[in-house]
Each structure stands twice: as C-alpha cells, then as structure tokens.
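Before relying on records like the one below, remember that each one covers exactly one chain. Contacts with other chains, cofactors or solvent are not represented anywhere in the record.
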Amino acid sequence: MASGYFDYLRDLLKERTGLVVTPDKMYLVETRLMPVARRVGYMSIEDMLIALQKRHDEKLIVEVTEAMNTHESLFFRDQDPFDLFEKVILPKLLESRASQKRFRIWCAACSSGQEPYSLSMLLDQHAAKLTGWRTEIIATDISHSVLDRAREGLYSQFEVQRGLPVQLMIKYFSQEGEYWRLKPDIRKKVTFRHFNLLDDPKGLGKFDLIFCRNVLIYFDVDTKKKVLRSVRDVLRDDGVLFLGSAESTMGLSEDLWPVEAGRGVYKHTKSPTSIADQ
C-alpha cells in the first residue's frame, strides 16, 4: 500500500477510535480490510481508500473502523479480577451500599459480551443476597456489529470452552445445534450500548466498578491519558477500576492509584479506601 493511503487510514483510525496503526501492522490491514473492500465492490484496499478520500461515505467509514478494531474476548478472562469481585468487592458493596441497595458496573470495550455476561453469572450465583437490590451492568463497545452479536448471547463450542467452567455452561446455556445460547435471565441483566471511548462518558452516569481491560494498549500516550481522565470522572470515590494485567496508570494519571488487592486494580487517589481493599 502506498504511504499516502496508509497515512490516510492511520489518521482516520486515530481520529475515530484512538487506535494507533503502525506500518509493521500492515498484515492486519490486509487481513481485516480486504474482505470489506471486496464486499463493497472494490478490487483492492487502495481503491476503497481512494473512494473514501474523494467521497465521504459514513457507512463505509464505520465498516472500516469497526473491522480494524480487535474484538478478542473470553469468559472469565484472567480469572483474578472475577475472584476479587466475588470474594472481596461484592461483600463490600453489600455493606457500603446497604442504604441505597444499588450498584452499577461498566464494562467498556465489551466486544461480544463475555466479560459482562461473566459478571452477570456471578451475580446470579449470589441472587439470594441481592434480593431487593438494583444491580446494573452497562456494557459498551464502538462496534455496532459486535454489540448485536453480544445481545444475541450465542456462542460457538470453542467460545464457551474458553474460560467457562463446565458447570456454568450446563447451568446457564442451552445448546442450539453447534452453538450455545446464554439463558434469557442472564442476558437481561446486561444492557448493551454503543459508545466510543474517545467521547465523554458522563451521560452513562456514575459507576461503582469499571472494567476497561486490554484497551489502553491500542492507544498512544495522549489518548490513554484522555480515556483515563474520562473513566476517573465517572468512577465513584470509593469505586474500583480494572485495567488489563499488562496495563498501568503509571505516567498517565495522578488520580488513579494501584490497589494492593490485585494487579491492574486502581482507585481514586483522593479516597483513603476502596471497595477492593481487603
């Protein structure tokens, strides 16, 4: 691909999604965008980009940006955050939010839904303790297509085998041919919404717990700082932020501080304690 077309694509992705694509990722461009180009009638990716430069086609731009985003997910990914939620955070929420009987969780960049559905299954296992409580799981992603798929709650055999204990698969899924569908009671606990992390999340409300894992790795430093500021603004004072195990706020935010409870767990620096403190 000629450098001019690559520069156009790089700038488009950075502006729309914050995604940083470098020349060494050309193989990803070819793999992910060639099917899009062919589907809309172009012989090559360059031809498609030339057309976009000449004529603004918002629908195609959305297709291109969605195709270039990574949508890797699995149930109970990196088990530790879910163990911490179940054994430490949930009991603390039941104590600290007893007067309101309400707490809210945001799963940012939720992809095809495995993360929020994992949390939904955990809440269901503690349903007796949560009688009379209002719990919300808001799951967002930039991709309309993966959100549609997440709402369906339909997964392949390979997907349900990745991280999902057999007993939970049997309890919460029903088989449909070669696929497995999550039962309605678990799906209805999650609200899926389209949201771009480059936008202001204040309209989503405040959250007690935010999962924003394995997202920052795709952004440059300035975008990481912007996203962390936005996340901080909607995190309750004693709330907890989960990042990926390889991600950190070091050098990016002075307002979010590691919690000793686990790797990739952060709280407001202004708060002496958090719901993750053991």
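The chain has a mean pLDDT of 91.
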